């Protein structure tokens, strides 16, 4: 399975991964997160776990359980950690702890390495055995709402090491090592592999999107951090200059109770505009997303707060220029004027939308540079290698 | 020179290294803080920010081949200083400590109170060394292996060990001198400055070109 990546990243890269994995033969690893589908974490685990198994590592993946009350609390955690504001009380923290305790009896905690993703299951470390715990944080925790971080950090400090996606997400109040590992996309997944033009046309027709009018796409949850309203406003400004269509592709996630509220706000902003297509696709609509990205003249990720923004790498991998919000991991992927454009406002987004729609050849140049940039830095093989090295380090092993 | 001779019989063992990155807790938003961070950062951090762009996977633009120069240009808008920092020498016998001094002197002598658009976050790293399994006993084998070995190995032996103070000069020159007495060729390789490279393959090509000129 890992060999299939050799034509893309080179045999030496694959050989290196195999050698590192050999040092972890016999080691058991359990990934734990809060959703099986929806969002970048579940997506990458769906691909990463089989790859680690293929390398001979005894790896499994468990999803924690919770009711709507718990996921409302963890969504509030998520927002307050990323936005620096919140309204969490002791009652919320008790609900969080209650579900950590319930999950501690259902999730096996005795693997050699417990690889815990994001805040939702972070409290499981309270029930740790004498094994190695690594916390993989996918969100921006650099400016959190202090009460939430104070509560969460009591757990994080019990880990052997933690992983952040971007250097600026680092915490000065943590004594454990903080490894910097950007996430990645899988070039062989249904979402990112090459597809035939006829499939692109079929998908466009299915969703009543015109082939002969330039398409701008943003693929994101209906989440305020992704600024869907800003995307709609920017598109409306661009429409004054270039006749085009906007496709906003979202999907519901079981751990995101706010999605429906934001979706309704966006519908109101669209106000019946026929060239704006709001699509709520079910999890697993990877082929459709692949088709929309490939059909696009440019791709947006106009986030105002972002963990990493893997949709940027997805679009660049398909050689599409990206206009991205200047936040989180987006500036690592969008190098301004090289692989796309970074923006801080609706007007800025509209300006570069118009520029790229009017200068398609230049957009193609940015897109082709973007593909190479992603090949070098943001493919799953690199993240897999970094994870294996972190496990080696955290277990005190060497190559 | 007989390129098939074994010299003194010391084989060259090709190793490589990965450099997992760690958050260092040092940040800067202006030049004073940047100079202060450069003074305090560990040698791995200086090494990382000055030399990681040698790998093709670098995250900087091509014309400013180190992180400090890119930040000074893009975040502070001080192009002239950025160009100076971009061109700081990194050839032998400099180590991370020498590079740190040069950086500190250039940056601390420049007067500007501008605040950056974004923070500069110092990243540290630590090398995890591995054996590539490749060996060379003759100059012919060395040339063939250098041309095909994992590029991480080229950077480890030619750049990282010397900058990190683990070797007085690059390993290739040391071996050529010690095993074959090739002092001139050794000096020729030593004069290549890796600081301005933004591709490990270009570095490899230049090394091979120098070896080929003398040996073939």
From TrEMBL, chain A:
Biological process (GO), any one: glucose metabolic process
Domain Trehalose synthase N-terminal: 31-169
Alphabetized UniProt keyword annotations: Carbohydrate metabolism, Glucose metabolism, Glycosyltransferase, Transferase
Limits of the Glycosyl transferase family domain: 205-371
One Pfam family this sequence matches: Glycos_transf_1
Single Gene Ontology MF annotation: glycosyltransferase activity
Coiled coil stretches, renumbered: none
Similarity comment: family membership: Belongs to the glycosyltransferase group 1 family. Glycosyltransferase 4 subfamily.
The protein's assembly and partners: Homodimer.
Identification of the protein by name: Trehalose synthase
The organism of origin for this protein: Sulfuracidifex tepidarius
Automatic annotation (TrEMBL), chain B:
Pfam family, one: DUF5752
Xref: InterPro entries: DUF5752 (IPR044036)
Name the record gives this protein: Uncharacterized protein
Species the sequence originates in: Sulfuracidifex tepidarius
């Amino acid at each position: 399975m890992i060999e299939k990546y050799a034509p893309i990243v080179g045999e030496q890269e694959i050989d290196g991964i195999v050698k590192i994995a050999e040092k972890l033969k016999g080691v058991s690893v359990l990934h734990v997160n809060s959703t099986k589908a929806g969002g970048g974490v579940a997506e990458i685990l769906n691909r990463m776990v089989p790859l680690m198994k293929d390398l001979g590592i005894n790896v499994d993946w468990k999803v924690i359980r919770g009711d709507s009350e718990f996921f409302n609390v963890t969504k509030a955690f998520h927002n307050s950690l990323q936005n620096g504001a919140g309204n969490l009380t002791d009652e919320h923290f008790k609900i969080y702890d209650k579900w950590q305790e319930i999950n501690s009896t259902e999730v096996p905690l005795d693997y050699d390495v417990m690889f815990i993703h994001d805040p939702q299951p972070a409290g499981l470390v309270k029930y740790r055995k004498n094994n190695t715990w690594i916390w993989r944080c996918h969100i921006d925790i650099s400016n959190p709402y202090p009460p939430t971080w104070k509560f969460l950090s009591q757990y994080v400090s019990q880990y052997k090491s933690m992983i952040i996606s971007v250097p600026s997400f680092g915490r000065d109040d943590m004594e454990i090592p903080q490894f910097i590992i950007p996430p990645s996309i899988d070039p062989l997944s249904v979402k990112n592999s090459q597809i035939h033009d006829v499939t692109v046309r079929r998908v466009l027709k299915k969703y009543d999107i015109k082939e002969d009018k330039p398409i701008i796409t943003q693929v994101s949850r209906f989440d305020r951090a992704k600024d869907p309203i800003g995307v709609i406003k920017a598109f409306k400004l661009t429409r004054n200059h270039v006749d085009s269509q906007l496709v906003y592709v979202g999907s519901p996630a079981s751990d995101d109770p706010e999605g429906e509220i934001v979706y309704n706000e966006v519908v109101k902003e669209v106000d019946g505009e026929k060239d704006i297509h709001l699509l709520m696709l079910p999890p697993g609509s990877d082929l459709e997303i692949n088709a929309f990205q490939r059909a696009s003249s440019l791709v947006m990720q106009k986030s105002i707060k972002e963990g990493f923004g893997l949709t940027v790498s997805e679009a660049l991998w398909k050689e599409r220029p990206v206009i991205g919000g200047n936040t989180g991991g987006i500036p690592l992927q969008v190098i301004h004027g090289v692989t796309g454009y970074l923006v801080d406002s609706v007007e800025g987004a509209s300006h570069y939308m118009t520029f790229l729609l009017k200068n398609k050849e230049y957009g193609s140049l940015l897109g082709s540079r973007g593909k190479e940039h992603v090949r070098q830095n943001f493919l799953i093989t690199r993240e897999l290698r970094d994870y294996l090295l972190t496990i080696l380090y955290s277990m005190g092993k060497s190559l | 020179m007989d390129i098939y001779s074994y010299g003194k019989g010391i084989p060259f063992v090709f190793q490589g290294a990965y450099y997992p990155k760690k958050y260092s807790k040092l940040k800067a938003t202006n030049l004073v803080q940047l100079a202060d961070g450069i003074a305090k950062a560990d040698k791995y951090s200086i090494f990382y920010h000055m030399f990681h762009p040698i790998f093709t996977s670098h995250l900087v633009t091509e014309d400013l081949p180190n992180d400090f120069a890119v930040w000074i240009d893009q975040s502070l808008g001080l192009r002239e200083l950025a160009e100076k920092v971009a061109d700081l020498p990194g050839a032998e016998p400099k180590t991370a400590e020498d590079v740190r001094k040069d950086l500190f002197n250039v940056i601390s002598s420049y007067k500007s109170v501008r605040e950056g658009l974004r923070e500069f976050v110092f990243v540290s790293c630590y090398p995890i060394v591995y054996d590539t399994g490749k060996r060379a006993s003759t100059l012919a084998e060395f040339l063939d292996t250098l041309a095909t070995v994992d590029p991480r190995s080229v950077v480890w032996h030619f750049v990282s060990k010397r900058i990190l103070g683990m070797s007085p000069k690059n390993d290739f020159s040391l071996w050529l001198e010690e095993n074959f007495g090739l002092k001139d060729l050794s000096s020729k390789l030593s004069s290549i400055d890796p600081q301005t490279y933004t591709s490990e393959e270009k570095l490899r090509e230049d090394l091979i070109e120098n070896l080929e000129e003398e040996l073939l």
